[in-house]
Amino acid sequence: MGKKLVHKTGRPRKETRVLNRELITDAAWALANQFGVSGFSLKDLAERLNIRSPSLYNHIQDLGEVQRELSARALLELNRYLVESQMSSQNKPSKERFQNFCASYRKFAATHPKVYETILGSPKENESHKKAAEQTLRICQDSLGLKVLDSEAVHKIRILRATLHGFVSIEFQSGFGLKESVEESFQWLVQMLYEQVVSR
What we know:
Layout: H1 21-35, H2 42-49, H3 63-88, H4 94-111, H5 113-116, H6 127-143, H7 151-172, H8 182-198
């Protein structure tokens, strides 16, 4: 007869993950969405990853580098929202596509209010942010129906981003205190942008 196998019982081993920049950025993203990009320290980040703080320096230089990566991540996430709106509106009239674009921008800001402000900077030393910003530019260009990125196109894109940012920023601060519908005001804004910028 063969030897009987004895199955030893015991506590299962805890799954271990190899620490890398992606895991660090994922953990930082979760903290930033809860406390803001400037609302946590490297100690907080290490605790979330269940490691000691010095271990982080094998992968990052300092907290500033983490914050720059978060800025790029936020911009990429905004781009994802905007691209999804474009994909779902491919066969719709240009006005409806533009309305969906603006609504998606506002939705991103409302979903990620703690990290939204980080998309406004332009840290040239961060290659990830630079690439994400270039993608944002192309998406905005497409939403406005601009064939060529000339001087006029740049002005239109700036007007679009500045106007949407202004609205969502005031909305965040509960700055619309009168009884009129904020939703209706946003629809007015989108209509005016379409007539004065897109259709011009």
